[in-house]
Each structure stands twice: as C-alpha cells, then as structure tokens.
Fold this sequence. Notes:
Number of strands: 19
Radius of gyration: 26 Å
Strand content: 25-35%
Amino acid sequence: MNDGIPVTSGGAPLPDEWARLHPMSPVIRAGRAAAGVATIFGIRSAAEHQTPWDAIAVFAIAVVAGIVYWSVTRWRVDGGELQIDTGLVRRQQVRVPLTRIQGIDLVRPLLARAVGVSELRLVLAGHGTGSARLAYLHEDQAVAVRAQLLALAHGLDHATPEPAERPILSVASSTLVASYLISPRLVLGSLLVTGSVIVMVLYPKQLVPTVGPVLAIFAIFLLGVARQAAAEWDMQIAEAPDGLRLRSGLLQTRAETVPHGRVQAIRWVEPLWWRPFGWVRLEFDVARRRNADPTEEQSAMTSKALLPVGSRAEARYLLGHVMPGATGELPPAAGVPARAVWRVPLKRRFARVYVDESYIACCHGRVRPDTVIVPLHKIQSMRWSQGPWSRRLRLGSVLVDTAGQRFTGSARFRDETEARELLARLADLAHAARSRTTC
C-alpha cells in the first residue's frame, strides 16, 4: 500500500519526494467522531445488556476510513510549493506557493498529544488555513517542518533556524478562572440551578419537569464557558522578529504567530462585571477570508483573544506592541450630542470616537463597552449611514471597513455636520497613512 513512499519521521528535512503523514494519523482523525458515535451505541447496548457490536462496528469503520485516507494522502515541497495530494474517488491536489505563507499554526489536540503527533495549519494571505494543513506529523518533525517552511517563505535558506523570541506577557490561570466564574452565563446558570433546587424542595412532584430543562440549559452555559476557557488556558505571549507568538490551550494546545502588520483591528473590551478588578480583554482581527470548514471556524475562535484577561496596564503594554501609539481609553469629550439620547438612551455616554494621524478608535456599549481600534492605513472602505429617524435628529454615522471579518469601526449618531467632516478627514488621513507605510 505504501508504493515506495516514505513515512516522515522526527527530525527529517523537508522531503522533495512524496512522503506520508504519521502512521497514527488515521487513529487521530477518526478518534473524536468515532468515539462520540460509539459512546451512544455503547450506552444503548449496556442498557439492553447486549454486546456493543454497533459501537465496535462504528469504530472499526472509522479506523478503516482513516487508513484509506492516510494511504492516499502524500505531501512534498517542490518548485517553491508545498504540494498535498489526497482523495481516493475524488482526487484533490493542493498547491501552496511558499511565498503566500503568512504563518503556520502548530496544533496539538488531546489525543494527538497522547500519541506524540502535531498538526500544521498554514495561514495563507487572504485565505486562512482551509485545506492547507498537514495532519499529522511527529512532534519533532512538525517543529522542524514549520521552521523550514517559514524560512523558505521569507526567502531564507531552509536550514535557517527559527528567530529567537522574547516572552513579554503571560496570563495567570487563576485570573482567567476568576474572570469566567463571574461571567453572566455562569452566574445565570447557577441562579437557574439554585431556583430549581428550591422548587424541588418545596414542590417535590415538580422534580422531573423542572430540573431536566434547567440542567440542560445550565449544561449549555457551562460547556460554552469551559470550551472558551480551555482554549485560552495558559496564554503565553512572546515577541519575535516575525511577529507576536501566542501559545495557549488546556486540552488542545495551539502555537501561532501573528505577523507584524497583519492585524487589521483590535477590540478593547471592558465588561461591567470586570471593572471592580480593573480587567480588560483584547481581541484581534486579521485579513482572512471566511471558510466553511468547521475546523477553521473553531481555530478562528481559539485564536481570537490577544489578551484573554489582564490589567489595564498589561492591555496598554500589549496594545503598544501591536499598534504603537494607539489607545483604547477614549476621552469623554469625544461623545455624541445630547439629542442622540433619542437613538441611544442608555449608551450615549459610551458612544465616543477618537481620531489621530494613525488610528481611529470607536467605543460603544454600556454593560459591555468595547473600543474598536483601526489603523488608518488598513481602511478598505468608508461608508456614510443616515436613517430617517437620524435624519430628523440631524445625526449621521460613519463606518470604516478593513480586510478583516470581525470588527468594524463605527462612529455612530454623530452630529450630521461633524460626521460629514469626519468622513472627509478620514479619507485624507487614510491616504496619508498609506503613503507613510509604503515609503
């Protein structure tokens, strides 16, 4: 079945001949899906006191499918491209020019860590990862291949070592846990459970119809919080010549590099329930096309936080590394006019905008205010918005778009004259900022 194609091993150089992935790849790829389905069949068989042949069959089919996928998948580096061929009935050929590689994420799911393998996800200019991935390689092989591909992508010799990094910030696990324990989702879920317990004590006959739905809702809240907390666990941030390096994860670990100049916008979030502790969250947006691949969407969620939780001083420090001179704390004088209370009665005090020669920062929200900071040279388009109600109040909104997908800078419900002047001013400032960055 091998057809003379070697299986890559730890420490091997980039192959110029076709090579296989790690032999344990079929087990890792099929393990999660097969385990879930097999568990369902296994529980049913146990309840019926029967041998779980259904579970065994599902797991066996998944493993066989994984072996077939592994046997028809091969990769190599040739002609300045990473080439990946796969597919049995429907062949798929992926050709990735090394010059388009902007970063390579090193991902280790729980089962992969137990086996000692890692996945490489290539981040391409404007495309995210998609099908440009190697899942899985031996851990040592994955680290070596990642370093060599990045060196070739930057026009260096493949033997050039990965640039050294300097740790600049780490998120304490205790702070992360505390920030999620006081989150509204968890607090609301706890209140629901407490209420159901009280009902159960006072009205025992209502036990089944009351507790079941409440526990289901609480489980949804808890799983959502646990999933995000696990993704952001033990966040380590380091600075390197090629960008910021982020490492995090409890069950699935992830190491990624955010190249300099690739960040399109940053969101400074300061929820109401964090203010007594002085905590702030930073999220970043990069130029990446939407992808229907669910693994890619999950990766996007995992890598969304630049700083999951930290003090204002830490947030300012990190923001200064990514966007020198930017601020997430806007002066109160940049608010909207008093008549805007008819449009944003509860959030008027927090609707602010600040513009200088390099950035535009827009703040919105009262309970969970967030400030979106956009470098002027990253602006792709600007829009003027004025609905019929805003027209009667002589209010206008200016929105700026970037190549990112998550954040939009929006100066909403400004004085109409001020908004038109802001739109014209932004056009001039953005042109000047782009001229400075290209010089």
